[in-house]
Amino acid sequence: MQTTFMELTLSPVYRHAQRVLSQWIDARHAAARREAFRTRTAVAQLGLVDRHRLARWLAWIVSAERCRGSRRLDERLRQLDASLHALMRTTLATLPSMYTVEAVRLTAERPVSADTAPHMTSVSATR
User: Rounded to whole angstroms, how far apart are CA atoms 14 and 39?
Assistant: First the structure.
């Protein structure tokens, strides 16, 4: 019996836009300003489906960044492309919250008390 798997195929335009956008995200402030036009051009060439895929990818990145306590990328995206930012925010609202996953993980861990904590012994230097 032969099984057929559906394979996700990404358009060359999408892959280019994602690559340029990821370089823009990783760039420092001055370099990001220089790359903004190239990034806007790459994003503007996306079709509707690819634009939604890119917004979902960005939503996951912004969600992970928020878990680390930062909102810098959210503001940078708004300044780069307001319509992509709005689409990303809409998509972000549909993602599962990473905060609840972190809270579940923290409550599942056994609390450390004075009785169960590893005991530290002092070591004196005898040289």
Answer: 12
